Amino acid sequence: MRISNLILMLLVLVAGLAVAQQISRDEYLKEYEARAKYMTSIYDTASGMSFNNIAVRYAHNIDIAWADSMFIDTLKDPHGDMFWMYPCINTYVLGKGKMSDATKAAVRNAWKTYAPYRGDTENHWAMYYASLFIAAEQWPGLPGSEWYNGKSSDENRMEAKDYLIHWIKITTTIGQGEFDSPDYLPEYMNAMHLLANFAQDAEMKQRGVMMMDYLLADFAAEHLDGQYLGGFSRIYEPAVYKPLNSAGSAFAYLYFGTGAPTYSGWATFAALGSYRLPQILYYIATDRSKPYVEKERKRVRNVIRFGNEKNPPVYKYTYVTKNYGLGSLQGGILQPIQQHTWGVRYIYGRPYTTIFGLHPYWSSLELGMFFPEEIKPLIADVVASKGTYNNPDKWTGGSPFERTFQHLNTLLVLYDIVPGTTTEHIDGFFPANLEQRIVDPSGWIICKAGDTYVGWYPLQEYEWKAEKSKEAQVKSGTTGWPGAQKEENDFWRLRSHELQNGYVIEVRSKSEIGSFEKFVASLRTRIPKSVLKPGSVSVRYTTLNNDKMYFAFPDVRTLNGKAVDLSKTKLFDSPFLHAEVGSEMLTMTYKGEKRILDFKNLKIVE
Amino acid sequence: MTKRKLSPAVVFILLCSLQPQRLAAQESTVYASVLSSKLFVVGAANPNTGLHYQHPSEDTTWHHIGAARIRAFGVATDESSKGETLYIASGNGVHKSTDGGTTWRITTGWEITEVQCVTPDPGNKDIVYIATAYGVYKSTDGCATWEQMNEGLAFPYFTQSIIIDRSDSKTLYCAFEEGVYVSHDAAASWKRTGLHVANTRVVVQHPKDPKTLFVGTEDEGLYVTHNGGKWWSKTEAGIDHTTFYAIAFDPNHPDTIYAGGYVSGVYKSIDGGVNWKRKSNGLEYQTIHSIAVDPANSSRVYAGTIFGGIYHTENGGETWKSAGLPGAQIYRIVIQPN
């Protein structure tokens, strides 16, 4: 490591220590610039064919001839679809004032001859159309013969604009579909970053800025120490149990100054850009002086078969403290393949800073709900890229036989699994680096992770399995594509084979309940009562806070005798964020300060 | 007796008269829509997918045309254009070429995606129907604009196959999630036929008898109607499989029918679909998604597999051999008799 890089690293580490102290705007910006420099300067001298290497050379005005040469080489075999489109056009706009005419011609030719696939997920489309919009603006007035899809510059620009406005509207009215994904946040950030930085259309530029705010607000309110909290639409292994491995954590580091310093290529373009996080979002992301509940409403990815509604609602509930966050989705199939229904994440014991459970379900019906290919061969198709999908030991995925009910820092999870389902067990993930993992005679499994205490009461018999290593999927922080990687794991797997099943989770911190011994003693007085028969699965439980919860599978939830109606959940509802369903608005609040994103009028009100 | 040297023109005429089918076949073009070639991951360096073609009697090479890395669910040709007008149904929408595949235009916008099947009206080149994951769309101006045509269909609108009645271009049939639906007003409205089986995958019409239709389903086998869909019967004599994605008539001998589906191999009937025999000798991949009989040579049949590329037979299904594109998922095969 060069001395300059070492000094830079020390600077950013010192800056990181200051985060919890709620620094001023000037201080924040100064530290932000240091982090951005740290994240991009590695590419000043990095060799190899990579858009990051080329873009940073242009942005930092270093070795332009090398950048030109490498750009032209890269464009000889374009591939990667929208993962090619956004770095390509971003690199072009960063360097077009410096690059040679031959390089410009090579870029133009690539957009004429290489036909990217539009993809089949929301993040694909966001990147595809944001990139196409910028490209169409860069080369206006060209006929269809000059574009890969046969459409003119105007047609491409209008189609892209129309889709992006549509996506923003549904996101700000009924919620994001590919929501709160620690691993796919970067794709949205990079798409919106393009608009925010480079759109010539002033309205689209404004939309880009506002959506950057929106996505980061969503993250900030469910963020702790660089980690996304709660249930997620999509996450990879091993990031699901090593949270800082998620590509999205690079944005926490860049914008919030939290987590771990990283050179992740996912955030390179953002770090080169002109967008700056509003100070209010920095405070929301880092002020954990008081515990709070964040309730959110999202939507299920487009259902194309086996459903009654195109975008059913997703209800998300997250309890956030300075030590941990416990969060959940209501359960069921809300996203294919990579759903994370619930988990507690905390600040102790990196990298294994989480405890969670799941029913590792898979089926061709689940895939057929969302993908248009033939149902039966789909599993083989999916496994080709998501290798753990049909693995009974996997750590990601939702299940139609799983439901949750959360109130504050207490969570009830129930399962009523139909016999013959692809997996007839449920699993729980417990890191081996917990300070304590006690199997108490009361039935509670009681864990200590620093100042965070987790109680897990299994409703059925179970077994423990120590697991040291496994093949896992990882979304790489620098190459930009998920691939197989050997991971050395070290955790305990709780496995229960009963089909009618469930557990109760209680989480407290030292500041909430006192000593670990007191937590243990309190749990011993709280034994859930359950009914676990096929078609009749329920649990009755009085929490450590003396709230009476009753939960019957699938969707009967009562709190202190009163029915809980999830359908009333707002788009955002917490001390920091507020948005009504259908409103196209988001209000951020922090200690008397407000920032309102008004997408109807394309205004930011402060 | 002196030998007379025949002029090249006479040789050509003689050959034509001796082997009319063979020469005709040399001129046909086989189009295959490739969903994936081995692995397909959006964003990765995938091998070529999309539209491929070959002139089978000239050589066995598959040539690629159009966008290189799209998931192509379907292909169609405007027969009257002699292969100049081509359509691809893909995740990106409907691609159209009017110069034999040299240049292409995606004719649909962002609203239309996951196009499963494209069906141009042979009697009116401006009219094109598509079946999509979100229902049926129609263009009446050569694909310049599109209109959703879901009246009478119920959510979810997933439609996999759409055909135009050969005897009446205003009558259409579609394989829909809740059964086979019929329209008698050029897709303005739809009604369910007598078949209430869920998850129908493909519907095909008899080449000569427009009231006879066959339908392949997910898990429910093959069905046939002889009265335009009023009532249906299951045809299962000799069939051991339940999921069928592909059905093809021999256009020259309509009592000969081929069908294939999930791990089924190819079934053949020579009595109009009453009895079936499995004809899979040489098929190394048993999941069949597309079948096409060469109209110029009834013995030559192509089968597109899932993950095994294309197979063909020169003897009506008695033996099959790989015809290329190994590892590919072939969703549709169309033979253009030039």
| Coarse shape of chain A | globular
| Multimer state | heterodimer
Q: Tell me the Rg of chain A in angstroms.
A: 24 Å
Shape of chain B: globular
With strands numbered from the N-terminus, the spatial order across the biggest sheet of chain A is: 14-15-10-7-6-5-4-3-22-23-24-25-26
Biggest sheet architecture of chain B: 4 strands, antiparallel
Number of helices of chain B: 2
Number of domains of chain A: 2
Biggest interface found:
A-B, 47 and 47 residues
**Strand segment tally of chain A:** 26
Count the DSSP helices of chain A.
17
Proportion of beta-strand residues of chain B: 35-45%
Q: Return residue spans of chain A where pLDDT drops below 50 for at least 5 consecutive residues.
A: 16-20, 471-487
Give the end-to-end Cα distance of chain A, rounded to a whole number of Å: 43 Å
Give the integer mean of the pLDDT values of chain B.
91
| Coarse structural class of chain A | alpha+beta
Show unreliable segments of chain B: 1-6, 8-26
The helix/strand class of chain B is mainly beta
Word description of this protein:
The complex is a heterodimer of chains A (606) and B (338). A 13-stranded antiparallel sheet of chain A has the order 14-15-10-7-6-5-4-3-22-23-24-25-26, with helices on one face. Chain A has 17 helices and 26 strands. Chain A has 606 residues and is of the alpha+beta class. Chain A starts with a helix and ends with a strand. In chain A, strand 25 and strand 26 form a beta hairpin. Chain B is mainly beta and 338 residues long. Chain B has a domain at 21-70 and 263-338. Chain B has a 4-stranded antiparallel sheet with strand order 3-2-1-28, with helices on one face. In chain B, strands 4-5-6-7 form a 4-stranded antiparallel sheet, with no helix packed on it. In chain B, strands 8-9-10-11 form a 4-stranded antiparallel sheet, with no helix packed on it. In chain B, a hairpin with a 2-residue loop joins strand 9 and strand 10. The chains are: A alpha+beta (606), B mainly beta (338). At the A-B interface, helix 5, helix 7, helix 8 and helix 15 of A face strand 7 of B.
